Amino acid sequence: MSQPPLSEQILVLEQALEVTLFERSRRGGARLTPVGAAILPAVREIDSVEALPALEAGNIDLAFARLDGDLGPTVQSLPLREERLMVALPSHHDLAARTRISLSSLASALYSASLRHKVRAGAVRGIFQSMVEHSDNADLMGKFLGLPCPKLFMYGEQNAGLSYLPHIQAHGVRLAPIVECGRFPMYSNPGAMWQQIADFLRT
C-alpha cells in the first residue's frame, strides 16, 4: 500500500477510535504515541475473508476489513470509509453506454469470468451433458414438487421471468426473490439469501 492511502486510513482509524496513534513531525516522520504503543502488540494482519469467522469465534476483538452484507447477530460493523467503484468495459459491451451500473447487472459476468478458477476445464462438458440429460429426461420438476417437506425456491432478478415460477408457487413452493444479485444469490447477495432461509425455517 502506498504512503498517502495508508496515512489516510490511519487518520480515519484515529477519528473512529477518537485517539491519536502517531505523533507526526513537520519533516514527515512519525512515531507511536503511548496509546499507539499500547495497541501495537495486539495488532496482527488478517485477510478480510478470515475476519468474520475470527470475530465470531472470539479469536479477535476488532477487525478493519472490507466486509459487506449481513454479518450476523454476533458482529456489529461501523463503516469508516466509502470507496467509489469503477468498472472497465469494452466499448461494444451492452453496459458501456450507461453512466451508472448496479452490481446485480455485473453479477453473472463476474461469476462467469471466474469459472476457470472454480471448475476443471475437462469436467465442464460432462457437467453440462448431465444437466441437459437430467433436465430433459429425469422429471426434475416432478421430483422437486414431490419432496415431502416445505420447499423454498430462491432466484435473482435476472430469473424473475422464469416461466415455471407460477406453476411451482401453485404447488406450495415459497418463492424468494433475492435483490441485487443477478442470477446467482449465493455469490452476489449471500446475506439476503441466508436471511430468506432463516425466515423460511422459522415459519
Key structural traits:
203 residues; mainly alpha; two-stranded antiparallel sheet; two-stranded parallel ribbon; 9 helices; elongated
Structure description:
By secondary structure, this protein is mainly alpha-helical. The chain contains nine helices and four strands. The strands form two sheets. A two-stranded antiparallel ribbon has the order 1-2. The protein has a two-stranded parallel sheet with strand order 3-4. Strand 3, helix 7 and strand 4 form a beta-alpha-beta unit. It is elongated.
What's this model, at a glance?
By secondary structure, the protein is mainly alpha-helical.
Produce the secondary structure layout.
Layout: H1 3-17, E1 22-24, E2 30-32, H2 34-39, H3 48-57, H4 103-113, H5 121-137, H6 140-145, E3 152-156, H7 165-170, E4 174-178, H8 185-188, H9 190-202
Parallel strand pairs: 3-4
Antiparallel strand pairs: 1-2
**Strands ordered across the widest β-sheet:** 1-2
Computed structural class: mainly alpha
The count of β-strands is: 4
Enumerate how many helices there are, as a single number: 9
Cα(first) to Cα(last) distance is 48 Å
Instruction: Give the proportion of residues in helices.
Output: 40-55%
Estimated radius of gyration: 24 Å
Low-confidence stretches: none
Task: Note the main sheet.
Answer: 2 strands, antiparallel
Residue share in β-strands? 5-15%
**Average pLDDT metric:** 77
SSE arrangement, N to C = HEEHHHHHEHEHH
